[in-house]
Amino acid sequence: MSAKTDALSAARLLLRASRKKDGGIDSKKALSLVKRIGESKPRNYLGVLDSFKRLLRLELASSQASVESATDLDDDAKKELEADLKSKYGSDLTVEYSTNPDLIGGLRVKVGSDVWDGTVKSRLERLSTAFS
Fold first, then answer.
1. Radius of gyration of the chain (CA)
2. pLDDT score at 22
3. Which among 68, 93, 101, 125 has the fewest CB atoms less than 10 Å away?
């Protein structure tokens, strides 16, 4: 195997070792593992740490949701949306709300690399593209 593949495999093991019982990331464990690797300096340790950092970044991004709407959402809508997202992505999901009047209507939801765009603006853009 190549050094990059070995580094990614080792980083995945580190990620697995730094998880809590509920599936989240234990920051103390992760920091301890990084310190231990930095002190022992195994072969290709910089590649392992770089891959581990990338995996952690992806993991943390998948536990944060960004909801963008044209107008402020009421509390009932927020609760329902959060319940739906938490059922799909886990109970440790945090949700951040913002308003953007340019969307005209609807919602845009981003969780990690997943994006759901149900805004009027995006529908109009798709329609415009279809007819041009």
1. 20
2. 75
3. 101
Query: Can you tell me the distance from the alpha carbon of 14 to that of 46, in angstroms, rounded to the nearest whole number?
Result: 14
94 and 121 in a single domain? The answer is yes
Give the structural domain span for 40: 3-61
Given a cut of 70, whether residue 1 has pLDDT beyond it is no
25 contacts 53 by C-beta, under 8 angstroms: no
Is residue 100 a contact partner of residue 69, using CB atoms and an 8 Å limit?
Answer: yes
**54-113: per-residue pLDDT in tens?**
999 988 888 899 999 999 999 999 999 999 999 998 888 899 999 999 999 999 999 988
Same domain, 46 and 73: no
- Tell me 43's DSSP state: T
Domain boundary among the residues 11, 38, 61 is at 61
Beta partners for residue 96, in sequence order: 66
Pairing status of strand 114-117 against strand 94-99 = unpaired
Asked if 92 contacts 60 with a C-beta cutoff of 8 angstroms, the reply is no
